[in-house]
Amino acid sequence: MQITHNNTHTVLDYYPIKDYSNNIIPKKYLRVLTYDGQTLNKRIVTQDKLDEEVRDRVDNFNYSITGNKDNLPQFHSQYND
Question: How many domains does the chain have?
């Protein structure tokens, strides 16, 4: 999923995450904050946090949903044995 601020070049992308064995980690997403093409922040968020953040930014902070499809899962080493 992707949301974009309507007046600035701020973009939030959310990617499912996977482990070394290509297993999708349920209800966990990599959140990537980008401004003017530069990545500013990456962190893992839960499905609940993603839903809350998207609703809040769209309803209160002039963001629009610009990509509502699942992005390709991203590897994250935190979820490996």
Answer: 1
The CA-atom distances, in angstroms, between 50 and each of 13, 21, 44, 80, 81 are 10, 24, 10, 22, 25
Q: What is the pTM of this model?
A: 0.87
Note whether residue 76 is domain-resident.
no
Q: Rounded to an integer, what distance in angstroms lies between the CA atom of residue 43 and that of residue 33?
A: 9
The answer to the question of residue 78 being in a domain is no
At residue 31, the 3 state secondary structure works out as strand
Name the 3-class secondary structure at 1: coil
Answer yes or no: is 62 within a domain: yes
Q: What is the pLDDT of residues 34-47, one digit of tens each?
A: 999 999 999 999 99
